[in-house]
Amino acid sequence: MTDSYNYNHEAFTGIFGGAKYVFENREASPDLMSEVAASLGHDIGADQWKEFEQTAHQYAETAALLRQIRNQAAEVSKLAPQTPTPAQEPRSASGVTVRINTDLNGVEVLFNEKPAQAVIDPLKAHSFRWNRREKLWYAKQSPSRIDFANSLAGVKEPTSGSDMLTEEQDRQGMEFCPSEHAMA
After folding, report:
1. 30 near 41, Cβ under 8 Å?
2. Which of 49, 66, 75, 94 could form a cystine bridge with 56, CB 3.0-4.6 A?
3. Residue 8 DSSP code
4. Other residues' Cβ atoms within 10 Å of the Cβ of residue 136
5. DSSP alpha helices (H): ranges in 23-116?
6. By the 8 A CB rule, do 127 and 140 touch?
7. Where exactly are the structural domains of the chain?
8. Are the CB atoms for 145 and 128 separated by under 8 Å?
């Protein structure tokens, strides 16, 4: 290890700054520590963990127990997956899946394999964009985009006509608001 630092005078570091010191620290949750303590035959609740951790060094016996709990917790966290793996979504018979993303107010289209250029061009014409990380096409939710996505998947149920935006509103990315629509 060397204690050195390289200075880079670039546009990025001028705008956003650099990272001179980077520290890393990982700590198990009090819930995990109390579970490990219980598996070793000790009753230390999650709410009592911080106090136990701060005072355990006073006695050799409790300090040894603390080390044992920390080592066991480290092994448990190595074995357990850090993020749950999402379940694979079923694809339609046509190889196209359409999802409505309510959190982002969007429509997502997934393909089993890369679609032909004859499919990509209409996707782009309907303002769908490719998300490389998620491996899907997405666009802001609108009835016309949902109908188009469903037509790709072979679903022929149109969305309700009362929720339709004008073409100008759709191009501007406006959202449908029933109260404003009713006033017009």
Report:
1. no
2. 66
3. -
4. 17
5. 30-39, 49-55, 60-79
6. yes
7. 1-81, 96-175
8. yes
Return d(Cα 52, Cα 26) in angstroms, integer. Answer: 19
Cα separation, 64 vs 1, whole angstroms: 31
Length of the chain: 184
pLDDT digits (tens, 9 = 90+) for 147-168: 998 888 887 665 544 444 455 5
Token code pair at residue 95: 């190889």
Return the residue matching tokens 């001028």. Answer: 14
> CB neighbours (10 Å) of residue 108?
19
Question: Which residues, at least 6 apart from 173, have a Cβ–Cβ distance to it below 8 Å?
Answer: 140
Residue with structure tokens 């802001």? 140
Could you report the per-residue pLDDT of 58-110, keeping only the tens digit for each?
888 888 988 888 888 888 766 555 554 444 454 566 788 898 988 888 999 99
Closest C-alpha to 89, from 134, 139, 143, 151: 134
Helices 60-79 and 30-39: angle between axes, nearest 10 degrees:
110
- Is the pLDDT at 124 greater than 80, yes or no? yes
Q: How far apart, in whole angstroms, are the C-alpha atoms of residue 104 and residue 164?
A: 19
Category of 135 on φ-ψ map: left (φ > 0), alpha (ψ -120 to 50) or beta = left
